[in-house]
Amino acid sequence: MIADALAEAGARVYVASRSADDSSGHIGIPCDLSSDSGLDELVAQFERREEKLHILVNNAGSFAAGPLEDVGCEEWDSIMALNLRTPFMLVQMLLPLMISAGDAEDPARVINIGSIAGIMGGSNMAYAYGASKAGLHQLTRTLASDLSAQHITVNAIAPGYFPSDMTEGFFAAQPGLQQTIVEATPRGRLGSGEDVGGFCIYLCSRAGAFVSGQITALDGGFLLK
């Protein structure tokens, strides 16, 4: 959704993905962002093609939920690594390209994709996932504090419920859950590509050039209930 919106707005979009399929109109770079070698490969391939990076969207992540007593160390560590460590390492590794891209009027942008699971107080038994997203929100603030003066803004979007492979999985596992969530959302629907894509375009446009260090719940009012 985000890649499509940015491309339609005129950006040349690279997507770190499981394959090099470019049929979507984006440039695919196949790599495993949960590994150091995958991070190195992504950065090396991007540096061979571009001298500047104007927008970095940290969206790769994994999800798991279950009873507290069933959470294992391997599951916890893998979720924390991909959801929290990877975004930090990508900012660190790509920082020179973003510094080259940004200026006082048009800074480079980092958009971290958090989650309302890192904000809401109730339990959905997604222990590592919720903690990793809360950590990503705080990482957004600290990076913004350090990088804004270098003409790089850092913000986070905390989505509510959007159609995705992840939500389809737990909607299928819990019949009736989707309708329950829709009814609990004041806007009365799931999020759409226009919602998240439009918000990213705002953050990346001149209108968002003075915004940094913010975590915005994009949830149709779900957290208000």
Short structural description:
InterPro entries: NAD(P)-bd_dom_sf, Sc_DH/Rdtase_CS, SDR_fam, Sec_Metab_Biosynth_SDR. By secondary structure, this protein is of the alpha/beta class.
Describe this structure in words.
By secondary structure, this protein is of the alpha/beta class. It has one domain (2-224): Rossmann fold, CATH 3.40.50. Helix content is 44%, strand content 13%. The protein has helices spanning 2-8, 36-49, 73-101, 127-147, 165-173, 177-184, 193-204, and strands at 14-17, 27-30, 55-58, 108-113, 152-159, 215-218. The protein has a four-stranded parallel beta sheet, sandwiched between helices. The radius of gyration is 17 Å and the shape is globular. The chain starts with a helix and ends in a 7-residue tail after the last strand.
Looking at CATH, the homologous superfamily is NAD(P)-binding Rossmann-like Domain
Number of strands: 6
Helix content: 40-55%
Characterize the main sheet.
4 strands, parallel
Family: Belongs to the short-chain dehydrogenases/reductases (SDR) family.
Protein name: SDR family oxidoreductase
InterPro entries: NAD(P)-bd_dom_sf (IPR036291), Sc_DH/Rdtase_CS (IPR020904), SDR_fam (IPR002347), Sec_Metab_Biosynth_SDR (IPR052178)
Keywords: NADP, Oxidoreductase
